[in-house]
Amino acid sequence: MPPAIAVDRVSQRFAGSKGAPDAVALDDVSLEINRGEFVCLLGPSGCGKSTLLNIIGGLIAPSAGTVTVGETVVNGPLPRDVAFVFQESTLLPWYTVLENFRVSLEFQGRTSGWREHAMAALSAVGMDGFA
Length: 131
Prior knowledge:
- With 131 residues, the chain is of the alpha+beta class.
- The chain has helices at 49-56, 97-107, 114-124; strands at 5-14, 23-33, 64-69, 72-73.
- A hairpin with an 8-residue loop joins strand 1 (5-14) and strand 2.
- The longest helix has 11 residues, at 97-107.
């Protein structure tokens, strides 16, 4: 069985501004995470933890190397396979709670039955009154 997540020789460089050298966020990182494993990424601020997670989630493309989730090579977001809890609020403040649910479910291609699914999720955590 393949690993749940495989990171193979991933590097990430961000272009420096105005002739400054590139910033190296990741340099030749490899790891495998198997189903059922609990993994923590630890390190000081700026060491590349969030960059690696963004690459695994398909939010940014690596400068080099590959990432696979299951047997799928990551070339963009995989909303059915990878979920995020961001450090900062990612709600759209001009939408209601229910409308924010709709956006995330539409991103997953779930356009029918979204309201019932959203209300069930909100009810499960006692927040249905905030829809």
